[in-house]
Amino acid sequence: MQLSEMTWPEVEALPVDLPVVIPIAAVEQHGHHLPLFTDSMLLGEIVRRVDEQMHQAALITPLQWLGNSHHHLDFPGTLSASPRCYLDLLTSLVQNILDHGFRRILLLNGHGGNDVPGKQVMFEMRQRYRKRNDLLLLFATYWSLAEDMSTAPGLYQSEMGHACEWETSMMLVVAPKLVGDYAAVEAVEPGNPFRPASRAWTTKDRSRVGHIGWPSQATADKGEALLQAFAGGVVRMLERMHQWDGVSWEG
Known about the structure:
There is one protein chain. Strands 2-1-3-4 form a four-stranded parallel beta sheet, with helices on both faces. By secondary structure, it is of the alpha/beta class. It has seven helices and four strands, in the order H-E-H-E-H-E-H-E-H-H-H. It is globular and about 55 Å long.
């Protein structure tokens, strides 16, 4: 169910244990070959597929396109909320849903830069409501929910990059007319020579052109397989939310 298509009495009549999905994405540069709205378009397609499969078993809010993308600001067109502003934004969205009585909430992420603030928001909300054991407050990035990526034919990359093989493949399905000459794009190795330490970085530290990965390996067949796998992973998570007993930590 799409929150944007409902009246307030219809929302009021919904069961409070219905899982609520808040999709969060971004508007940011995606190299020379993908549009700025890539993250939001991909998450929007995944959510559309999830909605078709879940029918009336989940409530989905409008996609929040403003993300935490300050690391991309060296590239024109990027729109970003500063980290602390973004924490407040997500906190307000989650608080709104709680105020309406719902108890099972999933922040569904489609942009890597939202990972740290999104998890922090849900951690802080749990501390705020520490005396309530009936709340299920979850954060997940959609590409982490797929169980088996071997169903995608001939993937070169083993994990998500940025404007990479995976994202380019999915965009060849979602909006092929917006995909530029990805076949001519050179690879940019992800790399982290300081592992296991985590070094602070901007995207330009890692990539002069804006992408990270192997876009030239993309195909529409890979993209369709990836979209199916990711949507399936979200559906399984929502089913687990349905099955939660409403009290236990283990679920």
